């Protein structure tokens, strides 16, 4: 991503201006659930399809700078001792390769006396169940989770 210095009277000035915008354009994709494959008993939230788990990517100059997730997915019954568990596999083109990160954002499970933290490992979205004092019944989980590269 380079910027060409623009000055009055320069040759091909309009073309250079267009090139500056093209090379430094912010692209935000639409929300999609294409390529999400649920694992370990998790599944697509079908009770309210517009709010099922989706992702979008943000690129600057064609380079991926962020991936955001939002929506609900269904969870199976979970044991408080399970720790980290993969929820779904994600399309590789929405992530940077060899990336692993736990989120600082947590879902407070007041009814269950604990927290879920979201993370990425390889091409999987995962949750870490911690400080859960009792098992979780099957239900739904909502996330708003973003990764900046």
Task: Pick out its properties.
149 residues; mainly beta; five-stranded antiparallel beta sheet; elongated
Strands, helices and their partners?
Elements: H1 13-23, E1 26-28, E2 37-38, E3 43-44, E4 54-60, E5 63-75, E6 84-89, E7 100-109, E8 114-121, E9 124-130, E10 139-148
Antiparallel strand pairs: 1-4, 2-6, 3-5, 4-5, 5-10, 6-9, 7-8, 8-9
Could you please describe the fold and organization of this structure?
- With 149 residues, this protein is mainly beta.
- The protein has one domain (13-148): Immunoglobulin-like (Sandwich), CATH 2.60.40.
- The protein contains one helix and ten strands, in the order αββββββββββ.
- The protein has one helix at residues 13-23, and strands at residues 26-28, 37-38, 43-44, 54-60, 63-75, 84-89, 100-109, 114-121, 124-130, 139-148.
- A hairpin with a 2-residue loop joins strand 4 and strand 5 (63-75).
- The two termini are 16 Å apart.
- 18% of the residues are buried.
**Average of per-residue pLDDT values:** 80
Task: Output the structural class.
Answer: mainly beta
Q: Count every beta strand, where a strand is a DSSP E run of 2 or more residues.
A: 10
Given the structure, what is the number of helices?
1
Q: Tell me about the biggest sheet?
A: 5 strands, antiparallel
What would CATH call the architecture?
A: Sandwich
Radius of gyration, Cα only, in angstroms? 20 Å
Regions with pLDDT < 50 over 5+ consecutive residues?
104-111
Give the CA-CA distance, first to last residue. Answer: 16 Å
């Amino acid at each position: 991503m380079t910027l060409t210095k623009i000055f009055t009277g320069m040759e091909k000035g309009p073309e250079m201006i267009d090139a500056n915008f093209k090379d430094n354009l912010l692209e935000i994709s639409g929300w999609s659930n294409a390529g999400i494959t649920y694992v370990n008993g998790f599944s697509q939230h079908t009770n309210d399809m517009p709010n099922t788990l989706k992702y979008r990517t943000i690129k600057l100059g064609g380079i991926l700078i962020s991936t955001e997730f939002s929506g609900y997915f269904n969870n199976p019954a979970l044991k408080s001792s399970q720790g980290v568990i993969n929820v779904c596999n994600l399309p590789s083109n929405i992530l940077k390769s060899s990336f692993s990160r736990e989120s600082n954002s947590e879902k407070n499970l007041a009814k269950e006396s604990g927290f879920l933290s979201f993370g990425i490992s390889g091409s999987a979205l995962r949750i870490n169940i911690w400080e859960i004092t009792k098992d979780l019944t099957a239900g739904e989980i909502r996330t708003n989770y973003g990764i900046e590269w």
